[in-house]
Design a protein that fits this description.
Elements lengths: L2 E3 H15 L3 E5 L15 H5 L4 E3 L4 H13 L3 E5 L10 H8 L2 H4 L9 E6 L14 H5 L5 E3 L4 H13 L4 E6 L6 E3 L13 E4 L4 E5 L2 H14 L5 E5 L2 E3 L3 H11 L2 E8 L4 H13 L8 E5 L8 H7 L3 H14 L1
Parallel strand pairs: 2-3, 2-4, 4-5, 5-7, 6-7, 10-11, 10-13, 13-14
Antiparallel strand pairs: 1-8, 6-12, 9-11
Helix pairs in contact: 1-7, 3-4, 8-12, 9-10
Amino acid sequence: MPQIYYSHAIRQAIEEEMERDERVILLGEDIAGYGGAFKTTEGIVDRFGPERVRNTPISEGGFVGVAVGAALTGLRPIVEIMFMDFITLAMDQLANHAAKLRYQFGTQATVPLVLRTPAGAGRGYGPTHSQSLEKWLLATPGLIVLAPSTAAEAKGLLKSAIRCDDPVIFIESKILYGQRGQVPEGDFVTPIGEAAVVRPGDDITIVSYSRMTCESLKAAEALAEHEISAEVIDLRTLSPMDTDTVAASVERTGKLLVAEEGTLSCGIGAEVVARIADTCFDYLAAPPRRVAALDIPVPAGRVLEDAATPNWESIGRAAAELVRSY
């Protein structure tokens, strides 16, 4: 399989779906011509024209509202929000409209909307351009939340999202844009709602998603040098969450560690731990642990940003302590 960049895999998915379905349109700031803040849509307007690739004013609430309306009329809009931090400006449209309308209309209407947005720290962009706010979205029934960790998943999950009849939030890691990975050629999709065991192991289960899956795999390699066998599970879909795959792993290993880039309090890790405590408490040989960002605004200074953000070393230390203490 050819190796391509994570960002190019996203572009491939969009172009293929626009070619397949003329109802697919793009909306966002600077996406036509410039290609968006991270160039993920560069060149698409040249292929499909300005009628289907539309620049918008700097008004997230406005153009997400337009996208909801377009979806209700039969189009399949893909919206790009330049940084995930700005999703806060469109929460009314997402939480009170996109997520609710299918239910309110008794399934007579659907909202096939995809909202793409880059998230996370690692570039020194400061507290208002570096947040991971996915836990806000998980609290809203009706929203599907995806967070791919590889180029192949980025393409396969995005194609599934575009074909979905429900609103999907598609979270992309800024750091992963420049990562290469093998991507199958041809039309393929990654199923929504299924986690993946990306590294088998026997001593501990490490659960993560997006960039932290890559960090967890690095941690697992380091742990192997110390004779600790870590199984790494990539959630891929945060909502609906595949608890069964995680539970099956924990039933074998007896130990659970969850790693996420967002802040610790009320996070994805808390949700995973709570679900595992409900479903397979008797299999746990040790208290589950979480590794996450500090509960502070993301620092702009790179040294402080690195200190506040989890990485393979902090994940590896937590896993080793958990295995060796019990």
